[in-house]
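Pasting as-is:
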Amino acid sequence: MHWIVATSSHRAVWQRDWQTVHMESTTSDSSTDAFYAHAAATIDRIDPALVPDDVSFTLEQQITDGDQLVGHYHFTIADGTVAVIHGAAQAADVTLRQDATTARSLQDGTIHAQGAFLTGRLSIDGDINTLLENGPLLSRLLDSMASGS
């Protein structure tokens, strides 16, 4: 099991023993949105035992402030690996859309995705069956990344 964090300028991989084994800088531009930065900074909180080797899907996050996209990143979970990558996925199985206030509340754990969805604060596009099949895994992963965990 290892984690991958990637931006346009950096890529880091963590392995099961929590050691950084590879880091490379591809550009000097370190600008990323705050929501992606939070996901990238907290990915190492995920318990390696949470991610089975036989699960494979991509979850894209789109965060808005009015009509403006202020956060855009995706998680790819495959072969026991969790990657968080800045920007759009080439082919997301599921896309979650929410406003910035909802995204902050999800990040800090004051609301859960199910509650946000039921109240219309979170919209879901894509393969709902994949989301439902992996809901417990996603919940555990996102809970472990919530600030204060």
